């Protein structure tokens, strides 16, 4: 069997330690030592970690690898315990349920709706950067990368202005809960809010995604209340957390290389390609959502029994030199198509066009308003989220 046994708990891969400031050295060591690793997962339960690009990409599209927790071996997996009204989302569903719900959502989540948000995204970015320019310094995460996507998501979903402060507070608590009681309270508050929001949109539809999801149908098929609530939750959670980290990580990568910052600033045609390369280089999700084989599955010589937990190393795959030569360098001339930062297969990120739009506008606004932006602290003093599931800065102090 071509696999090694390693300990993933507390950021340790056997003899390899993953550090929040630079996890990529650990990913590199894991790829070199083997394509598949038998590990203790983040919650202490046994898992399998897949590290190389070709294997990860194939596994992401393999129908034998289920995302439905009911296919897990009892006692093998301990994940986030959400109420049913939040758990019936696309990340926990296989076909045919996944196919049916994604088809209905796609009818509402149209390219036209995404494109219609561009002007509002740019206006919000400009407004957020005005005090930054005036003051000459900022924590770019707290003052820009975080409030921008939460405003965009609230606009998309039709969340009233007066509810947005609570909305962001609940989301932040769920991302980094002080304790289990606070996490449960935030989930409960969000669930009650979503139920009220959906009921209000049923009575008085608006020009927003929630109203369109309520109206979406295929013949006589509609989304159930739990499916609606779970979808709204997923769109909020993924559309907020991932974009915060994408903006922060991308900005830092450009600040690390002033020549690249200047190149994109002086030639905006470079921006779309830069967004793709920056997502590959330092994406927000080191691991894909866990999978459970519905039958024994062989991955690059390792036989994984049915029902055991499989973790697919997105960040490791995106730094695989067999697929991306010189992967630890930002290369704006790279043919970067095929990166896995937004997934692959049927679970490819539904909000990918919106994420790309937000990152491009966020970076362009920075290049316009603060062309001389630079780090406000030494690079070594930056603090990262202490997580193997999320790759993001806690703060990004900058000077203008």
Summed up:
The chain is an alpha+beta fold and 400 residues long.
Number of strands: 15
Mean pLDDT: 88
Terminal residue distance: 54 Å
Q: What's the story with the biggest beta sheet?
A: 4 strands, mixed
Binned, the helix content reads: 40-55%
Name the CATH superfamily assignment.
Cytochrome P450
The helix-and-strand class reads alpha+beta
Protein name: Cytochrome P450
Family: Belongs to the cytochrome P450 family.
Organism: Kribbella pittospori
Keywords: Heme, Iron, Metal-binding, Monooxygenase, Oxidoreductase
Features:
alpha+beta; 400 residues; 16 helices; four-stranded mixed β-sheet; Cytochrome p450; oxidoreductase
What does this entry look like structurally?
- The strands form six sheets. Strands 1-4-5-13 form a four-stranded mixed β-sheet, with helices on both faces. It has a three-stranded antiparallel β-sheet with strand order 7-15-14.
- 48% of the residues lie in helices and 11% in strands.
- The chain contains 16 helices and 15 strands.
- With 400 residues, the chain is of the alpha+beta class.
- Strand 11 and strand 12 form a beta hairpin.
- It has helices at 24-33, 53-60, 84-87, 97-108, 111-115, 118-135, 140-145, 147-157, 164-175, 180-203, 209-215, 225-256, 258-266, 271-281, 314-318, 352-369, and strands spanning 3-7, 12-13, 16-17, 36-40, 46-50, 65-66, 137-139, 217-218, 221-222, 292-293, 297-299, 302-304, 309-312, 374-375, 397-399.
């Amino acid at each position: 069997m071509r696999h090694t046994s390693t300990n993933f708990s507390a950021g340790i891969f056997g003899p390899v330690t993953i550090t929040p400031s630079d996890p990529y050295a650990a990913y590199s060591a894991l790829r070199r030592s083997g394509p598949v690793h038998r590990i203790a997962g983040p919650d202490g339960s046994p898992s399998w970690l897949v590290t190389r690009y070709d294997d990860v990409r194939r596994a992401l599209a393999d129908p034998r690898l289920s995302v439905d927790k009911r296919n897990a071996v009892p006692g093998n997996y301990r994940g986030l315990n959400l109420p049913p009204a939040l758990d019936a989302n696309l990340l926990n569903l296989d076909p045919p349920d996944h196919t049916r719900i994604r088809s209905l959502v796609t009818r509402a989540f149209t390219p036209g709706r995404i494109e219609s948000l561009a002007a509002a995204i740019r206006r919000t970015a400009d407004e957020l950067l005005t005090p930054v320019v005036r003051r000459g310094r900022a924590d770019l995460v707290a003052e820009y990368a975080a409030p921008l996507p939460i405003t965009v998501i609230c606009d998309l979903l039709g969340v009233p202005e007066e509810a947005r402060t609570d909305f962001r507070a609940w989301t932040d608590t769920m991302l980094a809960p002080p304790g289990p009681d606070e996490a449960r309270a935030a989930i409960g508050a969000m669930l009650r809010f979503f139920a009220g929001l959906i009921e209000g949109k049923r009575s008085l539809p608006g020009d927003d995604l929630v109203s369109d999801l309520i109206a979406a149908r295929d013949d006589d098929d509609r989304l159930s209340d739990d499916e609606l609530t779970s979808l709204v939750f997923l769109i909020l959670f993924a559309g907020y957390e991932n974009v915060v980290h994408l903006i922060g990580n991308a900005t830092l990568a450009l600040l690390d290389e002033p020549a690249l910052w200047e190149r994109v600033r002086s030639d905006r045609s470079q921006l779309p390609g830069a967004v793709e390369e920056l997502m590959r280089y330092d994406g927000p999700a080191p691991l894909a959502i866990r999978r459970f084989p519905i039958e024994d599955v062989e991955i690059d010589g390792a036989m994984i029994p049915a029902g055991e937990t499989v973790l697919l190393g997105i960040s490791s795959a995106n730094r695989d030199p067999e697929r991306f030569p010189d992967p630890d360098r930002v290369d704006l001339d790279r043919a970067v198509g095929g990166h896995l930062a937004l997934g692959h297969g049927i679970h490819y990120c539904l909000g990918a066009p919106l994420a790309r739009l937000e990152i491009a506008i966020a970076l362009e606004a920075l290049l316009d308003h603060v062309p001389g932006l630079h780090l406000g602290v030494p690079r070594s003093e930056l603090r990262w989220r202490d997580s193997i599931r999320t790759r993001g800065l806690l703060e990004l102090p900058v000077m203008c």
